[in-house]
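pasting for ref
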Amino acid sequence: MTYAGFDAVETMEQPWRSDSYTRQIGELIEKYKTGLTGTSFGAQM
């Protein structure tokens, strides 16, 4: 992902309610050495 020019990933709030998604997101962040910017709680972006 860093090769594609992404500095970080932003996720929606819902995936963080699942242990398996939380674990998977953490593994992908580590694998691709990218950051996590935060989450959106349904507000307009």
